[in-house]
Amino acid sequence: MAPSQEYNATLAKRLDISARQTIFRIKPDQPVPFVAGQFTVLGLKHSAPRVPEADPEEDADPAKADRLIRRAYSISSGSHEQDFLEFYLALVSDGKLTPRLFQLREGDRLFVGAKATGVFTLDRVPPGQKILLVGTGTGLAPYISMVRTLALGVGCPAVPLAILHGAAHSWDLGYRPELEMISKKCSNFQYAPIISRPEDEAVEWRGRTGRLTQWLTREALTKLCGFAPTPGETHIFLCGNPGLVEEALATFQGWGFDPGTRQEAGNLHVEKYW
Ligand SMILES: Cc1cc2nc3c(=O)[nH]c(=O)nc-3n(C[C@H](O)[C@H](O)[C@H](O)COP(=O)(O)OP(=O)(O)OC[C@H]3O[C@@H](n4cnc5c(N)ncnc54)[C@H](O)[C@@H]3O)c2cc1C
Ligand SMILES: NC(=O)c1ccc[n+]([C@@H]2O[C@H](COP(=O)([O-])OP(=O)(O)OC[C@H]3O[C@@H](n4cnc5c(N)ncnc54)[C@H](OP(=O)(O)O)[C@@H]3O)[C@@H](O)[C@H]2O)c1
Question: Are residues 16 and 83 part of one domain?
Fold first, then answer.
């Protein structure tokens, strides 16, 4: 059967982080069950307008006006949150879908996939293992879902858990207040934001700088995570910019971590965004 081309969800809430990043809370007409870390599809028709700041579309085809443009997006809400699905989105100026998503206002309709999918989940981590979640940009989204599903807003993780988030600027560090709040409360939860373009900051950034990949040494990670990531005791997750994913994958494989297969998880879990 051909996939539906009809809009089946409403943008209930929009929280702009910066001109290039936003958080959408979307209410699907029918609930979409998911496991924290999974993704679904968002879609808008080719005829939907683009934000004016995006690049003009040179290959627009009027014959496709009613066809949906669909892309995968990780869900950032907790899996217990039934009323809406949350997404953390970056504007790709020459992209097809994101310039249209960024033009949406609260109350507007869009398409959301009826199912969530993916194996980038904590279900594949044996109990007692320490967890290191590494991501750049909106690659943080699945980790927010994991943290919210573990209810870290009210409790603390049962095992040591660390999030390393690399972004260009401090204003690109979505969800920073929420993660800082949890790390203040929980001694076994570490949050390490790292920015790669400190020279653009209006107010001096006193935190860590450089690309996240520069921080992937045993010594630096032991300090950032509060534990030494070893293959016997730790599961590592990688998500976001493909350059980060490739470099980090090679580093951690060199330390003995194993990506496993889709059928059988290893201790190195990977989600590639593009
Ligand atoms: C499993 C999965 C989960 C994803 N989750 C998210 C998410 O939570 N949030 C999110 O913003 N995106 C996410 N993405 C990326 C998303 O699917 C789209 O690729 C992205 O939003 C760009 O779509 P577009 O139609 O605007 O650009 P396109 O027209 O598809 O792409 C134009 C080009 O831009 C590049 N590109 C694609 N994505 C990005 C990006 N994020 N940053 C820089 N360059 C890019 C690629 O080289 C691509 O060829 C996810 C992708 C996958 C596969
Ligand atoms: N954030 C902005 O202000 C901005 C401005 C203009 C355009 N955009 C566009 O918006 C989209 C999303 O941008 P984004 O900033 O959210 O995500 P992004 O481009 O993936 O960058 C996020 C983080 O990943 C780093 N990174 C990039 N390539 C890497 C690699 N090969 N290895 C390791 N780390 C790498 C970046 O460092 P670097 O800073 O060193 O690249 C940055 O710290 C992209 O298309 C981007 O070009 C963003």
Answer: yes
